[in-house]
Amino acid sequence: MQRATARVIEPAINQLGQLLQRLQMHTAVEQPCPRPSPVEDAAEEERSLDAEDLRVLHLAAPFKLHRLEHGPDTLVVLKLEQAKRYYRQLLALRRLEAAAAQLYKERQVRGFCHLYTGQEACAVGLCAALREQDNLIGGYRIHGYAYLMGVSAVGVLAELTGKCSGCARGKGGSMHMYAPHFYGGNGIVGAQVPLGAGIALASKYRNEDAVCFALYGDGAANQGQIFECFNMAQLWQLPLVFVCENNHYGMGTSIWRSTSNTSNYKRGDELPGIWVDGQDVLAVRSAAQFAIDHARRHGPLVLELCTYRYAGHSMSDPGTNYRKREEVQRVRRSQDAVERFGTLCQQQALLSKSEMLAIEQEVRDEVQQATKVAIGDAELPLYHLWSDVYASSLLNKIRGISEHNLRHDVT
């Protein structure tokens, strides 16, 4: 009897040990700087030895697999410091988008503005899994990704208002924010995916052991260039993860009206794929960690993150002409990413109500201060129209301009 019991328990213990070892290899994103210092890493590792600071959890929803015998771990570890970090990040993304919406309504933000409200678990989970050398490129809902990859709240909001403190000094706006290893967004639907394939090709060529995540939405999932990239990435075995953030509406058209095969994780043909509950931070993190390992060893794969956006396609879209308000309210009540994770942390006794309120106040203060700077900061002088056009310039002049002799400046 004891031998039979040992045969059952011992593999489970081994599996848990391997899981803990794998999770410790992945560095989660810090705020506002996403790369923890060695001192912080050592402190977190020391705290993790305390059983009270660690929970082993079963994910609520199973993964769906395509051309894979085994998928991501459904038994995941959540440490106390991770709980605090993820909850803070979720709140920060939610608050940043609320501030962006208000600035847009006040006409402080001009042009397009696409909000990420409701999809926060996708960004927080993905960025929690990234290693220091991994890369990411997105579409046009990138405010949250820019923040998680190291841009401050001031850098995000001031970029929206076109001010000097913006991460691109006000020249990029909503869709063009950048940070180390973050290659920004793209205003052309799906155009970032070929660029992501190029980033992955460069990493492989240079032997950098870096994986690139190329994000796109369900509205871009029928673009021909994405399928061309599927083929080329598989042929060349690129370290590339295609991430379809399926929020079920491409502009004003539901996925069920626009797409014959709504299982985006299966649409890579020969590429393996995984369906993920995109409203669960820990599920997204587990899938992203698996994807990094798979891309390094076996080449590209597709992740479909099933999520939902509360706002319209952009600020000019009320978001109620093609769906009912009751649908949005139902998702908010039952699947909200911030509420789900906050409830989990309370149920697991990782965060108390007072601790969560303190984090909320900290985030509120950060975003309020950033909003003041984004409104009050100055715009660049006019001559900066022709600065920073090139990363470097051999002639120190702007090429291709007739009747003008404009000197190129790198600021």
Description:
This protein has 411 residues and is an alpha/beta fold. It has one domain (54-376): 3-Layer(aba) Sandwich (Rossmann fold), CATH 3.40.50. 44% of the residues lie in helices and 11% in strands. It is built from 13 helices and 10 strands. A 6-stranded mixed sheet has the order 2-9-10-6-5-4, sandwiched between helices. Mean pLDDT is 90; it is low at 1-9 and 23-35. InterPro entries: DH_E1, PDH_E1_Alpha_Subunit, Pyrv_DH_E1_asu_subgrp-y, THDP-binding. One of its GO terms (molecular function) is pyruvate dehydrogenase (acetyl-transferring) activity. One of its GO terms (biological process) is pyruvate decarboxylation to acetyl-CoA. It comes from Drosophila busckii.
Which descriptors apply to this entry?
411 residues; alpha/beta; Rossmann fold; 10 strands; globular; PDH_E1_Alpha_Subunit; THDP-binding; pyruvate; Pyruvate dehydrogenase E1 component subunit alpha
